Automatic annotation (TrEMBL):
Catalytic residues (positions): E113
Enzyme class: isomerase
Organism: Hymenobacter mucosus
SUPFAM superfamilies registered for this protein in UniProt: D-ribose-5-phosphate isomerase (RpiA), lid domain, NagB/RpiA/CoA transferase-like
Protein name: Ribose-5-phosphate isomerase A
Role: Catalyzes the reversible conversion of ribose-5-phosphate to ribulose 5-phosphate.
Protein family (similarity comment): Belongs to the ribose 5-phosphate isomerase family.
CDD domains: RPI_A
Sequence positions that bind substrate: S35, G36, S37, T38, D91, G92, A93, D94, K104, G105, G106, G107, K131
Pfam families in the cross-refs: Rib_5-P_isom_A
The organism's place on the tree of life at top rank: Bacteria
Listed GO CC annotations: cytosol
């Protein structure tokens, strides 16, 4: 049986994947910056390269937290505008399979993450070795939902056999977590998702469900670190 990597090993793997992602960056690019601990490592390395004059780039961030990190790191940020296409979005994932179907949103930023994944010509995913799975679903699938619609969304998810749990705030554990848009998050415990395309189709039909964390047909490549190696997966 494969030993579970220690937190230090996982951080090292995330760092290796983040370093490797710099090879996808070119001067003049407009980048999408992901959210979460792996994306944060990428932002910090990209910032160092920008400050060293290695790249002249601009970026849009997938969360207020990543926006703050990018600003601190010296990465020039721009506002979304009509007709904007990103050359490259670099983001993490909670789970991925070898077809590069993803579960995202563990950090609650799935809506802006999907916007920037879709607006990009190339979505590059960074992952440590624990994220690559034979089947999606062990990680609870996050949904961003409009607060008014919550009771009906919980019913609809229960009907799809994904035990729904409203995510609570880490800072104020008696309050529900809020997204950057002020919406709620529901984590759906499916345990296994044998047909992600069909599940995504069902979820898309639920009114008040703003976005779900299944990212299908979006990633162009994934850098998965395993020990000292970084493996490149393409769909
Ligand atoms: C945030 C996300 C993150 O990309 C995902 O949760 C992975 O995070 P980490 O790199 O910390 O493991 O989807 O909404």
């Amino acid at each position: 049986m494969k030993a579970t990597p220690s937190p230090q090993q996982l951080k090292h793997e995330k760092q290796l994947a983040a370093e490797a992602a710099l090879r996808w960056v070119r001067s003049g690019m407009l980048l999408g910056l992901g959210s979460g601990s792996t994306a944060a490592l990428f932002i910090s390395q990209l910032g160092a390269a920008v400050r060293a004059g290695q790249y002249q780039i601009q970026a849009v961030a997938t969360s207020l937290a990543s926006e703050a990190l990018a600003r601190e790191a010296g990465i020039p940020l721009v506002e979304p505008r009509r007709g904007m296409r990103l050359d490259l979005t670099v983001d993490g994932a909670d789970e991925l399979n070898t077809e590069l179907q993803l579960v995202k949103g563990g950090g609650g930023a799935l809506l802006r993450e999907k916007v920037l994944a879709t607006a990009a010509d190339y979505l590059l995913i960074l992952a440590d070795s624990t994220k690559l799975v034979p089947q999606l679903g062990r990680f609870p699938l996050p949904l961003e939902v409009v607060p008014f619609a919550l009771p009906w969304i919980l019913d609809a998810v229960a009907e799809l056999e994904g035990k729904p749990v409203v995510r609570m705030s880490r800072q104020q554990p008696t309050e529900p977590a809020r997204t950057d848009q002020g919406n709620l998050l529901v984590d759906c415990h499916f345990q296994s998702i044998p047909d992600a395309t069909s599940l995504a189709r069902h979820l898309q039909q639920i009114p008040g469900l703003v976005e779900h964390g299944l990212f299908l047909g979006l990633a162009r490549a994934a850098l998965v670190a395993q020990g000292e190696q970084v493996l490149v997966y393409t769909p």
